[in-house]
Specification:
With 412 residues, this protein is an alpha/beta fold. Helix content is 25%, strand content 29%. It is built from eleven helices and 19 strands.
């Protein structure tokens, strides 16, 4: 089993499972080099609702925008040689855009799956997804060519389904995406008539959840023996408030900025002892209105060791208003700045995605668990874990409520 990013020797409560993803832009959307997560990522959503059961980060994203199945086959060695033992494949959109025969896609994906399974890895194939007709029209397709592309999508999926075996699984997201009347993607699932938005990603996530959860289960929050935080369950009060009001857990700090001063960010305690964060950012604010809950510890003697931060939370209200979520994230920070500004966040940035995950959580009785990748601690006076809410309210207000339940900062 994969052990990265947990470098060095440490006791693991769960043996982490590494997943790589391979495909085109519908795969590449899961992460970005700049911040390592995106709200439209189906695997990012899966990790959040399974308690970070899987190791997945940008280095395991082998999606390349614009790739045909032939181009993906030509570079299959990338994923064959990676450390993950599970690989998810999503391909075919650019074959349809190129008016290629269905058999071309079938042959290439079959060869990709064979190459990956030949080295002992397991493969999950996500069905070829439908798109909105407007994307074909914009590409100059005639009416008959659109029908042919839809036929080929169904032919490909029928063939890919037949590849299922003890080491190959088929995730039928097509059935959830398609309007059976006109065989287009249902309204509201795409950003641009082709690529998934958070709602489209959520449907893909649900098919993957049904496949992977019976095999690997879900990870519950448990304290690691190497946790260094004093207050892991947000107990007590008396925390230091800055730019916020209310009752903040002991040993904690807060930061916040918004045009209304402290009124838009309020801490309180919940009946089950969690830390509630109510935010109400009015319209006309900034692109980075924020509300943060922080626990900090002295990092003397920790230089060169590895650390990660983990926080369990419940979404009480996913967000009201027309403002835009920027981040709902777990972050690892030091006195000399972020350990890696492009590598320390885990979360989502899309309000629709939060709404849908809230619905999913309630149905499954789940909370969300965010965990940063592990990173080396630089020479610094402190290291901290922070839960961060950030919004862009220049075009509209945004309000909501989050409950923090548990957290830990593990150094090893």
């Amino acid at each position: 089993m994969l052990k990265v990013p947990f470098k060095g020797s440490r006791p693991n409560i769960y043996e982490p499972v590494g997943i790589a993803i391979f495909g085109d832009s519908q795969t590449a959307q899961n992460t970005a080099a700049a911040n390592r997560f995106e709200g439209n990522g189906w695997l990012v959503q899966l990790n959040m609702v399974t308690g970070q059961r899987y190791i997945f980060n940008h280095s395991l994203n082998f999606g390349v925008s614009g790739n045909s199945s032939a181009q993906a086959l030509a570079r299959v060695s990338e994923v064959v040689n990676c450390s993950a033992q599970e690989v998810i494949v999503l391909l075919g959109a650019n074959d349809r855009a190129g008016k290629l025969p269905a058999q071309t896609t079938i042959d290439n994906v079959t060869a990709i799956v064979a190459a990956i399974t030949a080295v002992g890895k397991k493969v999950t194939i996500i069905s070829h997804l439908p798109r909105r007709d407007a994307s074909f029209v914009a590409a100059g397709f005639t009416a008959s060519e659109i029908v042919t592309a839809k036929d080929n999508t169904e032919i490909v999926n029928a063939a890919l389904k037949q590849l299922a075996s003890p080491v190959v699984r088929y995730a039928d997201a097509y059935s959830l995406w398609v309007d059976p009347v006109d065989r287009q993607a249902k309204v509201g699932l795409t950003l641009d008539d082709l690529h998934q938005n958070a709602a489209g990603a959520n449907l893909i996530m649900r098919t993957l959840y049904d496949i992977f959860t019976p095999i690997y289960g879900v990870r519950e929050f448990r304290l690691d023996p190497n946790n260094r935080f004093v207050n892991t369950n947000f107990a007590g009060s008396g925390g230091s408030l800055s730019g916020c009001t209310g009752s903040l857990a002991a040993n904690h700090l807060s930061l916040g900025s918004a045009p209304t001063g402290t009124a838009g960010r309020v801490f309180s305690k919940t009946s089950r002892g969690g830390q509630r964060m109510d935010f109400d950012f009015p319209a006309g604010g900034s692109a980075t209105d924020n509300f943060r809950c922080i626990q900090r510890l002295t990092s003397s003697g920790e230089t060169g060791k590895y650390a990660y931060y983990e926080v369990e939370l419940d979404i009480l209200n996913a967000g009201i208003g027309s403002g835009i979520w920027r981040t709902l994230s777990a972050e690892l920070q030091t006195s000399v700045g972020s350990l890696s500004i492009g590598n320390d966040r885990a979360g989502t940035s899309d309000p629709m995605g939060l709404d849908l995950m809230l619905e999913f959580m309630r149905a499954k009785g789940r909370t969300l668990l965010l965990r940063t990748p592990a990173m080396a601690i630089p020479a610094a006076t402190y290291v901290e874990g922070r839960f961060n809410i950030e919004a862009n309210t220049t075009g509209g207000p945004l309000a909501g409520s989050i409950e923090l339940l548990n957290e830990q900062l593990v150094i090893y």
